[in-house]
Design a protein that fits this description.
Largest sheet of chain A: 7 strands, mixed
Number of domains of chain A: 5
CATH topology of the largest domain in chain A: D-Maltodextrin-Binding Protein, domain 2
Number of helices of chain A: 17
Shape of chain A: extended
Strand order of the largest sheet of chain A: 1-19-21-22-18-14-17
Radius of gyration of chain A: 35 Å
Oligomer: homodimer
Distance between the termini of chain A: 81 Å
Structural class of chain A: alpha/beta
Chain lengths: 641, 641
């Protein structure tokens, strides 16, 4: 049987294929007792009929006196009827109206005489103020239809109607099969203090289970399978025998080890392979024994993207026979809200002809919602955990200039009036303050764009605060000339947060015997630099300028890290020999450090934001003793007071 | 201590009081293991720091060959460098780059010679295509901040970062204490085949638990308490000692037995009592031992309303210190969407100065969203279970004419293109067809407004279909003259669904010895009639007219039931002696029946709707054998074919 699967198709085409080929699962019922706390949200697999009348007795609708209507004939305030003690009975709202009565007189329309007789001021008809047997629901009435989702009111109605058990639709059975020789189970990963090099934890099952749980579904996880086609085949065939959908982890992006498409083709049918989206491109789907199979790329973000855009629509088709292309993605994400016109803070290039998923953070500045993408490829988990939400850039999108309006699906609760955006120099002590800002009622998010980048952002009103440590080569003075040049007529509040030591970060034990920036020109020395506009790069440029060194003679001058930690990490990882950076980064990674200068790290805030509740919280946080104590322990920081 | 609680206040004032008096709970943490499946959605009670670098080794970012960068110096497609077998190593994406290498050559930029040497077509720098140790997350990095909600990505990141256990915010502890001598536990209720008269099931705890579960919270239920102030006091004091919020069921609306406000005043402070809303008016809230207490009225709808509008905001204050007045109600309801301009199908009177909660159903007719309220007071569970959503009418709203635009919070998933609205005559066999319409892919909702009401609705385009059984007194012919009069120039499709027997429904054994409508004028005979425009009322009017009876001489002529079952139920309940109605209603309630006529029950559909997928499903359903079989068993139905 030669069937050609579609390759390199866009998501709309994926959805069209899924719609054509995936139909609603046949109804399968399981019985549940009507008082099972898990019942709410389940779908009825059959019509449910009331076994009882509700109420099951004639009940009073008011507080008052049960009477016979004919005894009240002609009663009015001016001409009350008088009833003897044995011809009426007090009833509370909801209480039974005995068979010897046929209506209830509201207490407001009566009075009791001293001798215990009832004065009636209102003429009644039989049934007045009585909720007759079965008024709410009668015995035999259909109270729930097959296909209805059981809502909270229904959970109370079912037992009240005498229903003891009922058939609900059986849950979807789904399994995830992780594969890969390099994958180790989470339990083993946490047990080992130093996991083997080259091995990674099986983390995707945890994330996928959490998404399924958000959708009200459960997901089983199979054992981790080795990269052995026959083992995978056997497990896949077993999985399809007892599941409605099977997800396989990785396989598809793994160079020489791509077995899974072959197995699906041999045992069933491959529907498509490679989607024109980023990340998530290597995804594929097919059928084995008529059960849909989705192969998820291994990287976390790729897995998530395919889970939202392929697995969730597929499951919707299995469960309800359809899905709405407009709302399926925010539904899959569990988006809390949608922001339609978030203005982009930085230019963004999107690949042409490819749908791109972008993890973003958002902030409101002067009432305008701004958005920026988080850095990091599909392998990074941190950016996913940290993001406020997602933007989807359609395949036609190529260049998004600053100020482009993006639609953002927000997956995090954000209190806009507390949130402030920092842009500026990177510093690990500053990073620590974020928690203390939160403690004081603010919500600080940070983009590390270098000192000059921060000032420029402030000037363009693209952040609430910035920080700088910029040396002026001519004078050796810090910050003032840069700030004055950029602030123009605006009033900017300034405060030195702390002083910190800058120097040369080198490998432990200094194997290359580096002692100053003069060594940076040596053929056996590879440096890692910081981005344009970073105060640390300004410092390096000043230092080599003083030594008359041409930057072209330095190996690695154009290799860029965006943070002190990333630069230090390159040295720790053996990918560079030296970097200019702060002592705290060297200390944290147990690297050697040659001190060069102590510099003031100064915060700058436009005065217009000083009343912003986020900025207030930030300024309060600066006085937190715990923060200072923590920072003192990081190495190279000092307060001059 | 004399403190005056507020009485008879509106909901806005309730919210103001709650905001002033309820503050965020102090942080209380519990430890959870990082791989607990319940972790997703929990809130971090502390900052979480990564225990490991991710990746913990230098990993390849591509499929290719790990090499030393300096060996590729000058390499280009025209001038490849040649590397011997021992100076490169194949690596898959994600695999380790051994320490003896410092970059990865993409497989596309290379070729292997026959003798096993590697031809390199690209000059590389150290670090190229390598994800260094800690690139994603470095050891010591803060990966989650106190107050963050754990999202699915975070559930994977935490163990990947070597975090074994972490502190999350302890769940809210809430308890519901049902009270009332008349209340019996659900288990007992289901056990008894015939529950005692005057007793009702404790159903509110089930509904409340389901709402709490929707909010991601759990709710304990205490034992059912008798109407004994000292027992209630004791239990309340116990409950506040181990809970963050205590809900008490009923008490407040129960006439002479209102203890709870007194207990709260004596043991603490009453904040308010009586809210200007309908239902839910008797609600109250206060503090006992600084723990907030909410007293919920006993009726299900009242309980639900207070749960949404008082309990949920209160809980939001306890958990986050604030709530948004704009979104708190739809959040509480778990609204799936909001329809802003649903046009009202029937006039609605709302009490002045009172906020009114209205359970509604919705439908789209000719692209316009229409809405109508469901009948039933706060005691009815059925209307709650059946509703599509809620509308809140502000206190200023008094008369809402037909066509008023209501905002509706939808709590049910509706497939608009499948949904059709029936307005017309009530019939239990018709009611049964709803399930078969659904089986055929439609979604039929019905309003029983009588035959004439249905035709008038059709004419005004206020429904998709109607049904009639209207006798013309002059000719004894059915339906045609009425239809022709109302359809005007429109083309209406007609089809007789079935014939059914109408007659006089009387109590079993006919204790009043009723034999014809002539007996309706007897002083000891009380009838129950149907509403104006109902075909059954038209029939009665014709019959008494033939007998020369004046309707003023019939006791109960103005007492109205909207359905055959309701009329029959009044007879079964002893509240009326006779009604005109169909045999099926008499049979179902085991009442006696005196046949009078057999009438055609005819469906009418404007031709413009014949292609509507809901109408198509309806017409298909008419041929369902199972439906006909079911209807045949109900008594009094016949097909003439």
């Amino acid at each position: 049987m030669v069937k050609r699967s579609k390759e390199h198709i866009d998501l709309k085409e994926v959805w069209t294929i899924l719609r054509e080929r995936i139909s609603r699962l046949p109804d399968r019922a399981i019985s549940m007792v009507s008082i099972d706390p898990e019942l709410s949200g389940k779908i009825l697999a059959e019509d449910v009929v009331s076994m009882r009348n509700i109420p099951h007795f004639n009940a009073s609708a008011v507080d008052g006196y049960a009477v016979k209507a004919y005894r009240t004939s002609g009663a009015a305030p001016a001409t009350p009827c008088i009833l003897s003690e044995d011809s009426f009975q007090w009833v509370n709202t909801g209480a039974q109206v005995e068979d010897i009565f046929d209506c209830v007189l509201m207490v407001e329309d009566s009075s009791l005489s001293d001798s215990g007789e009832l004065l009636v001021y209102q003429t009644l008809s039989p049934g007045d103020n009585v909720r007759p047997v079965g008024e709410d629901v009668f015995k035999g009435q259909i109270i729930g239809r097959k296909g209805d989702r059981i809502n909270p009111a229904m959970t109370a109605l079912l037992p009240a109607a005498g229903v003891k058990t009922l058939n609900v639709r059986k849950d979807l059975r789904a399994i995830f099969l992780p594969t890969g020789d390099e994958i180790i189970p989470v339990e083993k990963w946490l047990e080992d203090d130093k996991p083997l090099q080259g091995r990674v934890m099986e983390s995707n099952s945890l994330m996928l289970k959490a998404f399924f749980a958000k959708w009200g579904l459960s997901l089983e996880t199979g054992p981790i399978l080795p990269d052995d086609p026959e083992v995978i085949r056997k497990q896949l065939l077993e999985a399809v025998s007892s599941n409605d959908v099977v997800l396989i982890g990785a396989g598809s992006a793994k160079g020489k080890k791509d077995h899974i498409s072959k197995i699906i083709e041999e045992e069933g049918e491959l529907l498509f392979h490679w989607i024109l989206m980023k990340p998530g491109r290597p995804a594929m789907a097919g059928f084995v024994r008529d059960i849909p199979i989705v192969d998820l790329p291994g990287f976390p973000m790729s897995t998530a993207v395919v889970c939202w855009s392929v697995v969730f629509p597929l499951i919707s088709l299995l469960l309800s026979g359809d899905f709405s292309e407009d709302s399926i993605i925010p539904q899959a994400l569990g988006a809390l809200s949608t922001t339609h016109n978030a203005s982009l803070l930085v230019p963004h290039s999107s690949p042409s002809g490819i749908l791109e998923w972008v993890r973003v953070r958002t902030v409101k500045i002067n009432e305008e919602t701004r958005v920026f993408p988080l850095a990091g490829g599909s392998s990074t988990m941190w950016a996913m955990a940290e993001s406020d939400g997602l933007t989807l850039l359609d395949p036609k999108t190529v260049e998004c200039p600053k100020g482009s309006l993006w639609k953002v699906w927000l997956t995090r609760e954000i209190e806009w009036e507390r949130r402030i955006l920092y842009q500026g120099s990177n510093d690990p002590a500053f990073d620590r303050i974020i928690s203390y800002v939160r403690k004081n009622g603010g919500d600080l998010i940070a983009r590390y764009v270098g000192s000059l980048g921060g000032l420029a952002s402030l000037r363009r009103k693209e952040c609430h605060l910035a920080a700088v440590h910029l040396i002026e080569p001519q004078t050796g003075l810090y910050n003032t000339s840069y700030i004055n040049e950029l602030k123009g007529d605006a009033s900017w509040y300034r405060q030195v947060l702390f002083h910190r030591q800058q120097g040369i970060i080198i490998a432990s034990q200094n194997p290359k015997e580096i002692s100053s920036v003069r060594d940076f020109v040596r053929e056996d020395v590879q440096i890692i630099n910081r981005q344009n506009g970073a105060g640390t790069r300004v410092l390096l440029d000043m230092l080599i300028n003083e030594e008359g060194i041409d930057s072209c003679d330095i190996r690695g001058y154009d290799n860029i890290s965006l943070t002190h930690f990333d630069a230090a990490n390159h040295i720790a990882a053996g990918l560079a020999d030296a970097a200019i950076g702060i002592k705290a980064a060297a200390d944290a990674l147990e690297l050697d450090f040659i001190p060069l200068v102590e510099e003031p790290f100064e915060i700058v805030i436009p005065e217009e934001y000083l009343e912003h509740s986020g900025i207030k919280a930030f300024l309060q946080a600066l006085n937190e003793k715990d923060w200072r104590k923590q920072v003192m322990g990081m190495g190279g920081y000092r307060w001059k007071e």
